[in-house]
Amino acid sequence: MHEPQPPAFGRIVDEPLRRVGRDGSFARGTWASLAEVLRHRELLGRLISREIRAKYKNSSLGVVWSLMRPLAQLLIYYVAIGKFMRAAEFTPDFAIFVFTGLTAWSLYSEILSAGTSSIVSNGGLVKKVYVPREVFPLAAVGGSLFNFAVQFGILLVATLVFGVAPLHPQLAYLPLSIALILAFATAIALILSALNVYLRDIQHLVEILLLILFWASPIVYPLSFVHQAIGGTFLEELYLANPVTLAVLGMQQAMWISGTNDPSQYWPPDLGLRMFIALLAGIVLLWIGQRVFSRLQGNFAQEL
Q: Domain residues for 143?
């Protein structure tokens, strides 16, 4: 003889099955993830603030240290490459040229470095409370943007001091360059931050790859050197397919006014079109990166 079931049991049985967790589909899942991040935008703002303050915690100079590294890099490359290797003789306003490239590269490399380790470094919070995991690499992006703004401010002041303020139509390349860097760097950081939870060697591999990729863009040497060496070949097109290279060239077009007016400097044809196509590809990659991150984030707490 069966015991009578309580009324609550019948209501539970009648309840329809509901999906638990995120929607794994590419379309609906993307919008759901975006909406979830937007609902936690206040937390994201606090994490960005923490990223900035933690970097200069217990430091008497504070944010001034964010100026020291790019200035030290500028001095090293200006002396080593500009003077010792005499590159400054062939490149007008070499200091502005180098600092422009370093400013673009610093934004890209810092997003990748900080973003890759963002989940692991916030492991305690990930294990204790549920928040959309994307906020951690996005906080790294926000902190990197702050440092970029400081460094770009120095660059802007330098152009005014040297009397080469970028007051020309090519300044329109600037927002396109920043958007291109943000799209690709954020997309790659999302994927690598998730993979780094399962394979910690990723963050060390990223450091080595960034060291190599630094020389794969015209940051401390003009594009004319590359064109003279491999111009008109498949290798040059492959070189120009690098989105970071295009972003650096766009930043140089915007901020390095002496080079854009020098006929001896080489610029790739249809640079704006190349950058726009690369930006569209970056947006697609950002979408794919978020979906890969969403698929992998389910076991973060257990792995950490």
A: 42-303
- Indicate the number of domains in the chain: 1
The pLDDT value given to residue 184: 95
Q: Which helix H or strand E contains 131, and what residues bound it?
A: none
The CB density around residue 48, as the number of other CB atoms within 10 Å, is 20
User: Is 2 part of a structural domain of the chain?
Assistant: no
In a domain, 146, yes or no: yes
134 or 33: which leads in pLDDT:
134
* Cβ within 8 Å of residue 110, ≥6 positions away: 143, 144, 147, 148
List Cα–Cα distances, 57 to 24, 54, 62, in angstroms: 40, 5, 7
**Greater confidence, 247 or 18?**
247
Residue 24: its pLDDT value, please? 54
Arithmetic mean of pLDDT over the chain: 84
Residue 166 within any structural domain of the chain: yes
165 occurs within a structural domain: yes
